């Protein structure tokens, strides 16, 4: 079986199921809007300090939305016990994992497509191409890591507790570089090019590492 | 006295000797005064912590490749001891930072990466506690241990990229006077012995725990035909 086609089939299945139920993306969108609402009351935001507060709000909202999204990645499979069924087919576990990771990334990007305009609307920030690029580049590596650990904890007790515990510290490099990139994109001092370069390095590193580790995650 | 008790006793004696060297042999620093003596154990336990996490890394890799329960036990032992040494490093560093930097904490590269190190392996231990013991938990932990070990230099590097104020590596730069260097190397050796002894003892505990749980060992083969005895 061609692993690429397997991955695409799994991703297509996940995306189609999301399209038919329309559960995850609306829930995450609402979650993100709520996060912005809370940020609005938590900070005293005015036109002078938006540039220093908005990057933090952006990453907080994105990280927690991401955790919820990756926590759900394997939920449907677990509820229907269909993961075992998929693993019984001759398809390689790495290809199945790649498909699930791809679908989760697409869903997270859909949430970002809601979050970034909402940020621009509610906080009056100028979200330009630089910010969008930084968030997108960070998403790739974060999604790879998030999916790996979602798959790892899928069949473990107390998984809701474990996923954030394991994923958040490993996301920190992305927050460091991504935070810097968004800050500089919004006009704070620093080098945007260095930050985006680091983000791309992290993407490459973690996508390679995750694909090496994926073999041990799903095969049973 | 068992061999573990003897080893523990030797390690404690060595640490007391190191303490004596730190307080009575090493000269007092001209600028920082007596606070500088924190340095010897602070840096030694940081190195010991890295050593422990290297043990976790190797144990994890061996477990993923060979599925040996022993490798997983070594990794578990390394993680426990490593978290203890990281805690010591962080607390001692904060005690040093308050008089010297006038703050307990600053988001410097080394401090941030050490905190992340602590969080990752504290998480590792929590995972070991929450996941039902067995193959799945061991694999999960092995992946966490490997990714955690890779993550820390990355965090360090990416913060260094923008800001740092932690003192540079003065040992390798040959900036220590001989008496201080000698004290440091002796303390380092003693701390590494202590770490090794602790890992050994913890390994023994993990072996006993596993034996009690029958998890790492394959299920016992029940001979066919025998009636099942009521428990």
Describe this structure in words.
The complex is a heterodimer of chains A (220) and B (231). Chain A is mainly alpha-helical and 220 residues long. Chain A has one domain. Chain A is built from 9 helices and no strands. The mean pLDDT of chain A is 88. In chain B, helix 2 runs parallel beside helix 6, helix 3 runs antiparallel to helix 4 and helix 3 packs antiparallel against helix 6. The mean pLDDT of chain B is 85. Chain B has one domain. Chain B is built from 6 helices and no strands. In chain B, 73% of the residues lie in helices and 0% in strands. Chain B has 231 residues and is an all-alpha fold. At the A-B interface, helix 7, helix 8 and helix 9 of A face helix 4 and helix 5 of B.
The SS-based structural class of chain B is mainly alpha
- Could you say which overall geometry of chain A the principal axes of the C-alpha atoms support? globular
In percent, how helical is the residue content of chain A?
over 70%
| Distance, first to last CA of chain B | 36 Å
Which stretches of chain A of 5+ consecutive residues score pLDDT under 50? none
Per DSSP, the total helix count of chain B is 6
**How many DSSP helices of chain A?**
9
Return the average pLDDT of chain A rounded to an integer.
88
Number of strands of chain A: 0
Q: What is the ordering of alpha helices and beta strands of chain A?
A: HHHHHHHHH
Question: What's the short story on this structure?
Answer:
Chain A is an all-alpha fold and 220 residues long. Chain A contains 9 helices and no strands. Helices cover 84% and strands 0% of the residues of chain A.
Distinctive features:
heterodimer; A: mainly alpha; B: 231 residues; mainly alpha; 73% helix; globular
């Amino acid at each position: 079986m061609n692993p690429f086609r397997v991955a695409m089939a799994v991703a297509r299945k996940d995306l189609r199921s999301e399209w038919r139920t329309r559960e995850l993306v609306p829930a995450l969108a609402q979650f993100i809007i709520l996060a912005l609402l809370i940020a609005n009351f938590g900070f005293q935001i005015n036109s002078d300090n938006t540039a220093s507060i908005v990057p933090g709000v952006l990453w907080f909202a994105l990280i927690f939305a991401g955790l919820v999204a990756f926590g759900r990645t394997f939920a449907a499979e677990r509820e229907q016990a269909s993961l075992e069924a998929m693993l019984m087919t001759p398809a390689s576990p790495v290809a199945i994992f790649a498909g699930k990771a791809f679908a989760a990334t697409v869903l997270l990007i859909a949430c970002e497509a809601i979050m970034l305009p909402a940020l621009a609307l509610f906080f009056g920030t100028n979200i330009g191409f630089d910010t969008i690029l930084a968030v997108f580049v960070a998403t790739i590596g974060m999604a790879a890591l998030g999916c790996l650990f979602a798959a790892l904890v899928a069949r473990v007790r107390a998984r809701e507790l474990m996923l954030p515990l394991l994923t958040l510290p490993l996301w920190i490099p992305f927050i460091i570089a991504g935070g810097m990139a968004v800050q500089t994109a919004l006009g704070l001092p620093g080098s945007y090019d260095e930050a985006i370069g680091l983000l791309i390095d992290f993407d490459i590193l973690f996508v390679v590492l995750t694909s090496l580790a994926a073999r041990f995650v799903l095969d049973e | 006295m068992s061999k573990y008790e003897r080893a523990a006793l030797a390690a404690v004696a060595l640490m007391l000797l190191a303490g004596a060297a730190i307080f009575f042999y090493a000269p007092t620093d001209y600028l920082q005064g007596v606070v500088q003596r924190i340095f010897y154990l602070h840096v030694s336990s940081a190195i010991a912590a890295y050593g422990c996490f290297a043990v976790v890394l190797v144990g994890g890799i061996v477990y993923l490749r060979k599925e040996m329960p022993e490798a997983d036990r070594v990794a578990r032992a390394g993680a426990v001891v490593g978290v203890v040494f990281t805690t010591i490093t962080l607390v001692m560093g904060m005690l040093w930072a308050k008089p010297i930097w006038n703050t307990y904490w600053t988001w410097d590269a080394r401090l941030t990466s050490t905190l992340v190190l602590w969080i990752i392996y504290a998480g590792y231990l929590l995972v070991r506690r929450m996941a039902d013991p067995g193959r799945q938990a061991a694999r999960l932990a092995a992946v966490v241990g490997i990714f955690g070990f890779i993550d820390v230099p990355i965090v360090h590097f990416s913060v260094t990229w923008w800001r740092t104020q932690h003192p540079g590596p003065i040992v390798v730069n040959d900036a220590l006077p001989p008496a201080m260097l000698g004290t440091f190397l002796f303390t380092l050796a003693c701390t590494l012995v202590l770490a090794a002894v602790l890992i050994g003892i913890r390994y023994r505990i993990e072996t006993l725990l596993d034996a009690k749980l029958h998890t790492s060992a394959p299920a016992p083969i029940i001979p066919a035909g025998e009636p099942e005895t009521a428990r």
